[in-house]
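Budget justification aside, the reviewers requested a transparent look at the raw inputs and outputs of the sequence design task funded under Objective 1. We therefore reproduce one unedited record. The lines immediately below are the structure tokens for a 239-residue chain.
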């Protein structure tokens, strides 16, 4: 699998330690006034469409990134590394660029939130689907950091796949709410564990930036994606 996809998956897996309070709460809502089997089905429906919403945002973001793939300066890999460092700062609860993006995102969310409330409380599949799709617009620094990776992927399909992997990375933690013991959840929410994840992202981002400057094409996923698109055309032209 492309290293970018593994990076996105790891970002979702470790970064979701920060999001249990915000995103995990919606899973708990499925357990109110409905039987256990139905609650589980609705939770999985919501999670599936939440991941789909991330993937769609990834495809849209990568479309804009594709415009910069011909630049000689490795802007997109540098952007990915920078946002990974921002994500580490975000997980440390230090005010930084991702918090500023969240404030901008709240302007959009205020318009979406009244629509979201029309599907609450969740008791039917279509309501879980709608909430899942709308949840991708919730202001979240973790999602913004992952979208920076999607931008650097080089094509809408690669951006879609990048955010799909990110969403799958968040899945274990989100599903753990209400399905595992409170002791395990309290362990996962310990500050030292989140700080460790933050340090890993900062180091990872620094490596991305170093690699991009040392060898512009080593982590230039957008360049690789464009080459893959051009190769079949060139092969066809030769025949």
């Amino acid at each position: 699998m492309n290293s970018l996809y593994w990076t996105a998956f790891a970002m979702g897996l470790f970064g979701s330690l920060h999001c249990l309070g915000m995103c995990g709460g919606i899973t708990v809502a499925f357990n109110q006034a409905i039987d256990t089997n139905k609650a589980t089905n609705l939770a999985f429906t919501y999670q599936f469409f939440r991941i789909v919403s991330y993937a769609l945002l990834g495809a849209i973001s990568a479309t804009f990134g594709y415009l910069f793939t011909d630049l000689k300066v490795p802007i997109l890999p540098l952007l990915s590394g920078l946002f990974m460092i921002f994500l580490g700062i975000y997980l440390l609860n230090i005010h930084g660029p991702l918090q500023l993006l969240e404030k901008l995102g709240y302007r959009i969310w205020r318009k979406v939130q009244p629509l979201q409330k029309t599907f609450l409380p969740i008791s039917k599949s279509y309501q879980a689907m709608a909430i899942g799709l709308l949840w991708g617009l919730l202001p979240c620094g973790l999602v913004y950091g992952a979208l920076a990776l999607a931008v650097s992927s080089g094509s809408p399909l690669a951006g879609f796949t990048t955010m799909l992997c990110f969403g799958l990375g968040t899945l274990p933690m989100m599903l753990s709410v209400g399905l595992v013991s409170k002791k395990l959840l309290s362990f996962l929410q310990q500050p030292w564990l989140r700080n460790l994840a933050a340090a890993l992202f900062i180091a990872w981002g620094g490596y991305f930036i170093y690699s991009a400057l040392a060898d512009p094409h080593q982590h230039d996923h957008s360049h690789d994606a464009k080459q893959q698109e051009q190769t079949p055309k060139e092969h066809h032209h030769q025949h």
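Residues 36-65 form the longest helix (30 residues). The mean pLDDT is 79. Computational costs for records of this kind are itemized in the attached budget.
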